[in-house]
Amino acid sequence: MTQGAPGSAEGPKKLTILGSTGSIGCSTLDLVKRNPDDYRVVALTAGRRVQELAAQAKEVGAALAVIADESLYGELKEALSGSGIEAAAGGAAVDDAAARPADMVMAAIVGAAGLPPTLAAIRQGTTILLANKETLVCAGDFMSAELSAHGATLLPVDSEHNAIFQVLEDSQPDAIEKIILTASGGPLRTRELHEMRDVTPAQAIAHPNWDMGAKISVDSATMMNKGLELIEAHYLFNMPSEQIDILVHPQSVIHSMVAYVDGSVLAQLGSPDMRTPIAYSLAWPKRMKAPVERLDFAKVRELTFEDPDPKRFPALRLTRTALEDGGSAPTILNAANEIAVDAFLNERIRFTEIAETVEETLQSIDPQQLDSLDAVFETDRLAREVSADVVARFESGGAAKKVGVG
Ligand code: NAD
Ligand code: MG
Q: Which residue, among 23, 18, 168, 196, has the nearest Cα to 91 in the 3D structure?
């Protein structure tokens, strides 16, 4: 999904960050601040953390700061007064920020909420650095069509996809036998099956290797994250489900691999620090320095691998089936998962009920082909409604169909 290098050969690259106050947003700004001559920040956007957003905008001299929650406009305006930085609020203002001319837009909002601004960025024909995998999961076909229609470029930030991008010889697609997505297995990889039901939000977000936002941390604990990444890889690299394997690798040193028809396997390795894939996407097609811990192989000592346990992680089956069914299935799966994860984080449902909510939502909505972006948004809305009902039933102690764990 690449066209050409972003921006002009010389001078700072103009950069917008959607979701600047999040984990990926902050890591991106860390790299930008270390290379002040190379980047000029056009716009920063955030959901609700208004003071943090204002401080970031002042620190990097952004032209515009946008808070998605409209009720926080006054607070943002006041925090930016005298700085010369433009303030705006609301969803449409986030979309407008994404449409402002920039050489690169970092898409780092969490969830399908990132779809409208990511589309706005694509429609200006720029380079999108994509962290926000949920957008590709819920609207992959339409994003691909918009990317070609507007001559935009998509660079993967997700560490696995960034690794694949680094080792993929796409001039010879027939030579690629398989993509191997590695997965840490998350914090519950070795937990007894009967204990999974009682896992708390604090236990689920305590990732052994990566420091990330709450939603993706829960997704890592259910391994829904790897399932979403399977669908993400399908769209990014145009690979069918059967050519994408998932392999548990608890050390998170190999970030993913590509196997070729001659038996060669190419891998990208590094410390588990998102600043490496972010740096790769910011500097592409060049490389830039990143302040990450260097790999010390003598200390790492061993790299181990195992197949994921389908009983412990039913999300893997659900995502694989959704990808193979196609049409509205991935959109429904993603929306239901967002609702379920939010309910789990708010202690309304149990850990194992996340996958159960997703499965029941998928079974409750007739699958269909999606023929427009409007149909995607309508499916997303419907799936949120249905999954909210499933959540409410779990919350009130109602029984549900079991999906493998319990
Ligand atoms: P996060 O929760 O730390 O940050 C999310 C950002 O989005 C925040 O700035 C928040 O203010 C903003 N936001 C949230 N809801 C919004 C809304 N409705 N409208 C506008 N803005 C909104 O999340 P994160 O961990 O940085 O992850 C961001 C994305 O990157 C996710 O899609 C995640 O799957 C992906 N990703 C993250 C990592 C990681 O290491 N954190 C790695 C790979 C991929
Ligand atoms: Mg990842």
A: 18
Last residue of a domain, one of 141, 157, 173: 157
Q: Of 140, 157, 174, which residue is a domain's last?
A: 157
HSE toward the beta carbon, residue 155, CA cutoff 13 A: 23
Could you report the average pLDDT of every consecutive run of 10 residues in the chain (406 residues)? Answer: 59 97 98 97 98 98 98 98 98 98 98 98 98 98 97 98 96 95 96 95 92 95 98 97 98 98 98 98 97 97 97 97 98 98 98 98 96 97 98 84 40
Name residue 131's amino acid.
Answer: A
Determine the distance from the C-alpha atom of residue 21 to the mean position of all C-alpha atoms in its chain, rounded to a whole number.
15
Ligand whose nearest atom lies closest to the CA of 133: 1
d(CA 348, CA 225): 21
In a domain, 116, yes or no: yes
Q: Which residues pair with 244 in a beta bridge?
A: 179
Query: Which residue out of 73, 109, 129, 157 has the highest number of ligand 1 atoms within 8 Å of its CB and is therefore the one to mutate?
Result: 109
Q: Is residue 2 a part of any domain in this protein?
A: no
Q: In 10 A of CB 121, how many CB atoms?
A: 29
For 346, counting Cβ atoms within 10 Å of its Cβ (0-12 exposed, 13-18 middle, 19+ buried), the class is exposed
Domain count, the chain: 2
Parent domain of 386: 314-396
Distance (angstroms) between ligand 1 centre and the Cα of 196 equals: 26
pTM here is 0.96
